[in-house]
């Protein structure tokens, strides 16, 4: 990817940013160290942007998707944010467009890298990381991209937020009949009846009053979701 394009500094947990730099890179997206050891995202779609405001808007959308990727792969709790927007000049300097933001810090574990070798001692090409696979899926599917964005919302772990995600999954499968063919119907039916039931989900239910009886074995919300 050419460096003569817009760049947006990534703000977030250092371990998350290091993970992206090491694991998310192809012809359309990459992360590189720029000035003062900051890491910036370069996105092929930036080439169509005419000003820094459009670049920032596009970066915010991409960071929301990547935050969902990081939450799923690493359990990350702090969403990524867009820092300074940079425009590299031919002489090596950069125009910098800055918006001041607050900051917070938490600590997470680092990544462990493994290299596989063949019988001759040659390193085998590393398979795409889970983060790269999810990023590519989000690029190909608007449904995947939306689900990843929704997973970082404040209501993503309650019944209303989870039901919103379920509706996207059902629509992407094609219909409720498709869930029967996929073998997911019993699980999703139990989920729907639990989420909609005041008797099962209490005040957090999707509905305010019960219209149907709860399932005989309702799900219970845990920190990792229904279980």
List the main descriptive attributes of the protein structure presented here.
two-stranded antiparallel sheet; 8 helices; about 230 residues; 5-stranded antiparallel beta sheet; 2 domains; alpha+beta
What is the helix/strand order? EHEEHEEHHHHHHEE
Q: What does the average pLDDT come to?
A: 80
- Percent strand equals 5-15%
The biggest beta sheet reads: 5 strands, antiparallel
What's the number of domains?
A: 2
Shape: elongated
Radius of gyration: 21 Å
Derived structural class: alpha+beta
Describe this structure in words.
With 227 residues, the chain is α+β, with helices and mostly antiparallel strands. It folds into two domains: 7-97, no CATH class; 153-226, no CATH class. It is built from eight helices and seven strands; from the N terminus they run E-H-E-E-H-E-E-H-H-H-H-H-H-E-E. It has a five-stranded antiparallel sheet, with helices on one face. It has a two-stranded antiparallel ribbon with strand order 6-7. Strand 2 and strand 3 form a beta hairpin. Helix 2 (52-74) crosses helix 4 (142-150). The N and C termini lie far apart (43 Å).
Brief characterization of the structure:
40% of the residues lie in helices and 14% in strands. The protein contains 8 helices and 7 strands; from the N terminus they run E-H-E-E-H-E-E-H-H-H-H-H-H-E-E. The chain has helices spanning 14-23, 52-74, 130-140, 142-150, 159-173, 176-182, 185-196, 198-201; strands at residues 7-11, 29-33, 39-43, 81-88, 94-97, 221-222, 225-226.
């Amino acid at each position: 990817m050419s460096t003569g394009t817009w760049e947006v500094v990534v703000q977030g947990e250092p371990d998350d940013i290091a993970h992206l730099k090491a694991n998310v890179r192809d012809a359309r997206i990459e992360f590189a160290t720029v000035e003062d050891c900051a890491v910036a995202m370069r996105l092929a779609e930036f080439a169509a942007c005419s000003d820094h405001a459009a670049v920032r808007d596009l970066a915010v959308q991409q960071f929301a998707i990547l935050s969902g990727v990081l939450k799923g792969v690493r359990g990350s709790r702090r969403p990524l944010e867009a820092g300074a927007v940079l425009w590299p000049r031919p002489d090596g300097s950069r125009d910098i467009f800055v918006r001041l933001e607050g900051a917070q810090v938490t600590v997470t574990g680092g990544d462990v890298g493994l290299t596989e070798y063949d019988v001759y001692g040659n390193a085998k090409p590393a398979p795409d990381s889970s983060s790269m696979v999810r990023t590519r899926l989000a690029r190909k599917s608007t449904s995947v991209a939306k689900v990843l964005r929704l997973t970082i919302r404040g209501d993503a772990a309650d019944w209303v937020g989870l039901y919103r995600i379920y509706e996207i999954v059902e629509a992407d499968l094609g219909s409720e009949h498709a869930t029967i063919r996929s073998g997911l119907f019993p699980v999703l039916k139990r989920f729907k009846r639990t989420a909609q039931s005041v008797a099962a989900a209490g005040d957090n239910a999707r509905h305010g009053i019960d219209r149907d009886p709860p399932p005989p074995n309702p799900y219970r919300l845990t920190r990792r979701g229904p279980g």
